[in-house]
Amino acid sequence: MGVMLILAAALPAAGALAVWRLRRRPYAHWIGAGAAALAFAAVAMLPVGRGSGAWLVADGELTGAWWHQVSIEWAPSLHLEFSLAVDGVSWTLALLTALLGVLCCVHNAVGAEQRAADLLGADRAASAPLQVPAGSFETGGPSPAARRVRGVPADGASGSASGSLQEPPGSFETGGPFPAAAPVHGVPSGAGGGEPEGDRWQSPILTALLLAVQAASTLVFLTDNLVLFFIAFEAVLLPMWAIIHRYGDPAARRRAAAKFALFTVAGSLLMATGLFIAIADTGTADLGAILLHGGVGDDRSLLVFALLALGFAVKAPLWPFHSWLPDAHTAAPTVGSVLLAGVLLKLGTYGLIRVAGGLAPDGAADAAPVLAALAALGILVAGLVCLRLPEIKRLIAYSSVGHMGFVVLAFAAGTEAGVRAALFGNLAHGLVTPLLFFLAGALKARTHTGSLGALGGLRLAAPALAGLLGFAALASLGLPGLAGFWGEAFTVYAAAERGGAWLGLAAAAAFGAFLAAAYLLRMLRRVSHGPVAPAVYGIGDVSAAEAAVWAPLVAGTLLLGLVPGPLLALFSEGLL
Amino acid sequence: MRVQDIDHAALLPLYLAAAAAVLALLAGRFAKGAAMTGLAAAAGAAVWVGLGPDRATFAVGEWHSYVADDAAMGTAALFAGLAVLVAAVSGRQAGEYWFLLAASAAGGIALAGARDLVTLVVAVETLTLPLYVLVARPGRAGAEAGTTFLIASVTASATALMGAALLYAASGTVHLAGLGAGLADAHAGLTAAGVALLLAGLAFKLAAAPLHSWAPLVLERAPLPVATYLASASKLGGAAAVTWVVYFGLAGEASAGITAAVLSVASILIGNLGALVQRRTVPLLAWSGIAHAGYALAPLAVLATAAGREQAGPAASATLAYAVFFVLLEAGAFAALTAVRPETADLFAADPAPEPGPGPAPATGIGAAPAPGTEAATRAATDTATDRETGAQVASAERRTPKADLQSGGPRGSVLKADAGNAGLQRRDDDPGGRIAELSGLWKAAPLPAAVLLTAVIGLAGLPPALAGTFAKVAVLEVLASSAVWLAVVVAAGAVVGLAYYLPLARVLLTGRAAAAPRRYAVALVLAGLALAAVSLAPQLVLDFTSVSR
Questions:
Q1: Chain A closest CA to B492's CA: distance in Å?
Q2: How far is A561 from A435, CA to CA, in rounded Å?
Q3: Region entry Disordered: which residue ranges (chain B) (predicted)?
Q4: Which residues of A touch B463 (CB under 8 A)?
Q5: What is the pLDDT of residues A487-506, one digit of tens each?
Q6: Which of A143, A379, A526, B63 is the most buried (most CB within 10 A)?
Q7: What count of Cα atoms within 13 Å lies in the side-chain half-sphere of residue A552?
Q8: Is B309 contained in some domain?
Q9: Would the ipTM clear 0.95, i.e. be above it?
């Protein structure tokens, strides 16, 4: 099974290289999807024969075990070993990563084929006006639809309740001609204006970068060596930066990518400092050994936890360190947002729960009130901001700040119920928010706008899409019976259980959940209900390929919501 | 009179390098071959000696002046190897060039084995002296570079010598092994002054602040192969000298730690701020090299505290390891730049065009604004919007259209973008490396140099997949995390700033339309790339020989 561990991380990496080598072949996307599928299979097989790793005993008490472990010496002077291990906690996240990797690759492959077919059709018709500039598909460049939309706020201001608050659709983030577009392309604006963008969007290189992110993230979840953890954590950065920078929304991508890179590196270097203090203090970089040892010494515990928590709080993100997130999520292409929400944010919470909490349990207990207060504040701020956001993708992105606030609050509560709620909420968010991003991406691709003011009547124009959006929004706001419920409910429970000032934090979190319901229902009202907006008129409903990509996420959301028991059992035998 | 036995095997690499220098002087048209063969043989001999038992010679009692242990021989092999790489990317040069290069490498090998202050200072001078001639190209710019280097170097040598003299006065010995005991009950002020002067003087070679200002100017004006040597082998010399002095001689001195801390923080601050505003490739690498000198010196700062002085061995090892990874990356970057540079490095060739304006900005430090007086530069500074259009018109006739530059160009309103259209207008013939924008699309035009350069740049930023840089950072942070957490945070902050100039450089290489680029020195670049790949996959190769405490 050690081989499976290595394959889980190596297959996406090999797939990335293969896709990059064969990027000019038409089947390159499918090679990527195949590699991701094989990696998923490898991860899915990990529970087979679990318990073959050494059971770990602390104080004569069985505390849990790695299922499997494999270790190869690399650079002993740096305490670096290529050491992988898996247990219930890391397996679920690795599985989520692999699943999202497959879905993103398939999404890309299907999208590319569809684009090729569309272009072929357009060529046959040979009518320039019909040929939608390719760039506008993802990016909302100049397009006839966007121009039509522009008329809405002028006469719709009185009709729409909060019309005065609306940004003019088209100018916000996505729409309107990219101001620098004309000089940049140096071509007279016309059908060819956005062509390079379109070519880029369906480029197999995007698939290769996705696989690179997947490989590095899987390595973060599976590694047992703190130095390798740091290296893998850093390795996520460059491919993700390239995804945002190269394939993102042209208006915002450069700033967003730079912000993402600088925030992330600052966080990961602070984290590295904390990790190395822990390594110097304990004399080993073996995560399992340090966990059993009870973490670092008392005098260093708070310092280590503070540095690690700062680093992970940037990635998670926790409230005052979150400002890179809305920009990055909004600017990234759909698959980029999916991976950001589904995988990259999990790196932060996983690190916080297992590494920071495990290396410095005493420091975690000391710092818990601060962490909890920030988390509760983050939940409230995210809820209030989301109530006013005029753009669907940005709204979903900002809602992540709130959801991650729940996870951090549950972890800060420190009780067993709290930690499990944190892990559960983490995983649920990793299923629901990617689904929301996929849906928002599909909606934007069809309507060429993400502005809530320009959308409406989706339930009439595309009932299946509207239904899925409703389902995902309900799951996100924590409807009982869907995945989002358990994590948030138990977070409030765990915080309230501690009594005292924590009751206030629990109340704040509960109010935050109420705000989440308010903003998500507001979004549904704007997008799905009301009269059919011009932008929505005549769009296609969910295609079979899209349904196939989204189905696993829907199924997972239902499964976690209806049968949370097995997952909680997995967490309980995890090594924490 | 008893004559001391000399261990000639320990000196073999030095003999070979010196022989290569003499042969190059006499060999006429075969000078290049003779120098490269001799230096390669010296590298091989150093590896052979290093793999064998530790040797030492020129003893006074227990103290040796010349040592051939793993650290010394590994460093010596690296000196010789880097000199071979520089020779390989030098093209055709006159015979003296090869002599000077080999002589300098011999100085480096002597430095690697030096374990007393006199040998050390003489070795550093041998390493530096030939460079006075090599950096000076004909013409005003070249003369300025040569003069600057000469003055800065002489100042630094005098500083280091003064420090060495004070330490000799305080301790009564020049042997590094004897310094520790000799300084134990010496006058504290005298010791501290000696330590500070000696380390600051030696740090000149490493281009650490405050003796850093020669680096950007000289590196940019010198011929690129010589700049490659200055940025790699010469800096390795500085790092090795500081490491030997601190670890073997001053491991018990708090003043050494304090000096290292001051030099390190100043270098990180100045180097990063300077690099942020550069628009030309070589000055960018030169300024960031100053920051890297700061990262390399940082581990030695742990000596400032009593707890840290127990960590002297790991700290010195981390400094040397960082320096080795760093010079390999720098050598890769500069070698790749040399390969793609438009005109050949004809060191003793005709005079290039005279300087268009008085004192270009890199000389003064911050802000490498194009020399005032050129019309295009004025326009670029004043009106970005108009400039884009005129730039587009003008350059549409050029090979490199502004489209490529603009699409790839930095954050909105950035320098890159504003100047992209003028790429064809402002090129001056004496601009080694040229502007960053000129590298646009290199990935498509010349994949091999671009790959090496990209690996080096990402490695300098410390990011995977160029793991050499990551390991270097890990080595430094591991030492700092145990004894000087505040400095670890400074190093981390510096690395974050570093990302702000390395990432745009990497992006320029990857995006944009390709222009024709020369394809030269493929073998040298492949070897440099393989070396980088080797230390990325097997860092223990470097970490083994750089662990001085064994």
A1: 5
A2: 15
A3: 348-432
A4: 234-235, 237-238, 265
A5: 888 888 888 888 888 888 88
A6: A379
A7: 18
A8: yes
A9: no
